[in-house]
Amino acid sequence: MNRIKCHVKKGDQVEVISGNFRGSSGKILAVFPGKQRVLVEGVRIIKKHLRKSQDNPSGKIAEREGPIHISNVKLIERDGKPATSTESKAKKGKKKS
Asked: Is residue 5 part of a domain?
């Protein structure tokens, strides 16, 4: 079993950079590395129909977040610290000759 490395983790603040939800941002609620998917707070709200039960005697339509692909999110902030861009690091280290 190999562990799949992800560029984001639970609790990070991210922005959606592509797809139908481009431009929206939120906190990561869950990461599914095997499926390469993440749940972002307030992004891709789906409606789930629940059947009758003791908790919901008349049934219910629940709204919850749906997963989006991990490549469609960009890290904005981790643990209250703004994310550093790898592009800016590469440009700073590059020497002109």
From this structure: no
**Residue numbers of the domain that contains 63:** 13-82
Structurally, how many domains does the chain consist of?
Answer: 1
**Which CATH number belongs to the domain containing residue 36 in this structure?**
2.30.30.30
Residues 30-80: tens digit of each pLDDT: 999 999 999 999 999 999 999 999 999 999 999 999 999 999 999 998 877
User: How do residues 66-95 score in pLDDT, each as one tens digit?
Assistant: 999 999 999 998 877 788 765 555 566 666
**1 domain-assigned:** no
3-state secondary structure the chain: CCCCCCCCCCCCEEEECCCCCCCCEEEEEEEECCCCEEEECCCCEEEEEECCCCCCCCCEEEEEECCEEHHHEEEEEECCEECCCHHHHHHHHCCCC
